[in-house]
Specification:
The protein is an all-beta fold and about 120 residues long. Helix content is about 0%, strand content about 50%. The chain has no helices and eleven strands. Strands 2, 4, 5, 6, 9, 10 and 11 form a seven-stranded mixed β-sheet that branches. Strands 1-3-8-7 form a four-stranded antiparallel β-sheet, with no helix packed on it. A hairpin with a 6-residue loop joins strand 4 and strand 5. It is globular and about 40 Å long. The termini are far apart. The model has no long low-confidence stretch (mean pLDDT about 95).
Amino acid sequence: VQLQASGGGLVQPGGSLRLSCAASGFTFGRYAMGWFRQVPGKEREFVARIGWSSSATYYADAVKGRFTISRDSAKNTVVLQMNSLKPEDTAAYYCAAQEITERDYTYWGQGTLVTVSS
């Protein structure tokens, strides 16, 4: 099982980044996918989630209206489009997979670092 996140980097406030997470080793269509972020010294926090059928999306209040989560079942990929970035969005971003019968996320990827700074 592998969740390979990419797309992080340094961006100025107000800019955009597109994070991708490539999934392999499990049946992608049976999993909801989520993005989380963590700043050193703080707890990991939820950012966004998309259901297994792509029909349901959820966002943290802090990113609602600025971030968009989507999935491509043909490519086994989940994308987080981040617009109007703010310095407080700086964090390591992680993708995760939640099997449809489970409450907790089953698989986690490595983080990709997003830095928003002028």
